[in-house]
Design brief:
By secondary structure, this protein is mostly beta strands. Helices cover about 0% and strands about 50% of the residues.
């Protein structure tokens, strides 16, 4: 299974970015997985950012970014998105795409609960 994240880069405070994550794999059925994003600052633990149910019917967003970030998915393209608006310097991190096999509609926030991780894409926000 491959989770290929893209869309990161260097932006200024107040700018927007949209991250994409394309999922692939011979035995991977995208529509059976909740998808999400975590982020990590060097030297700190990975932090939950957002998740979306396998059908896209429900989302969960971390309180710290709830007013600025949204998550969406396109099951026809095996892709999940993270729209980040009004970026702040403390949003600087490596952002990881994750997949969690859906047994229910519950969206897990623990990093240990994820089944697959992508390699991450770096977002740097300058002040």
């Amino acid at each position: 299974v491959q989770l290929q994240a893209s869309g990161g880069g260097l932006v200024q405070a107040g700018d927007s970015l949209r991250l994409s994550c394309l999922a692939s794999g011979r035995t991977f059925t995208f529509s059976q997985y909740h998808m999400g994003w975590f982020r990590q600052v060097h030297g700190k633990e990975r932090e939950f950012v957002a998740a979306i149910t396998y059908r896209g019917s429900s989302t969960k967003i971390a309180e710290s970014v709830k007013a600025r970030f949204t998550i969406s998915r396109d099951n026809t393209k095996n892709t999940v998105y993270l729209q980040m608006n009004n970026l702040e310097p403390n949003d600087t991190a490596v952002y990881y795409c994750v997949a969690d096999l859906a047994y229910s509609d519950y969206l897990e926030e623990r990093s240990s609960g994820m089944d697959y991780w992508g390699k991450g894409t770096l977002v740097t926000v300058s002040s």
